[in-house]
Specification:
Number of strands: 0
Radius of gyration: 34 Å
Oligomer: single chain
Largest sheet: none
């Protein structure tokens, strides 16, 4: 009879304390995984939408060089 009471108390403890805590911990870990996945998606998507500073400087230098060439051509045409 004493063993039955201990077993019953243990089952009540597991049911009322440990299982709900395990459920909420599992739920929190799942939410954390979702947030981690969203952050990783942002890391992947970010380079698609923004240009790196170095790439921008290279492109800007190329444009400036071409504009200088066009300006020089126009100056030579004007001088003739």
């Amino acid at each position: 009879m004493e063993l039955d009471n201990v077993t019953l108390l243990w089952q009540i403890f597991l049911t009322l304390v440990l299982f709900p805590n395990a459920y909420f911990i599992n739920r929190a870990l799942n939410k954390l995984k979702e947030v981690d996945d969203k952050i990783n998606d942002c890391k992947i998507e970010l380079p698609k939408h923004y240009v790196a500073k170095n790439e921008f400087n290279v492109a800007l230098h190329r444009i400036e060089t071409q504009l200088d060439q066009i300006y020089n051509l126009l100056q030579r045409k004007q001088d003739k």
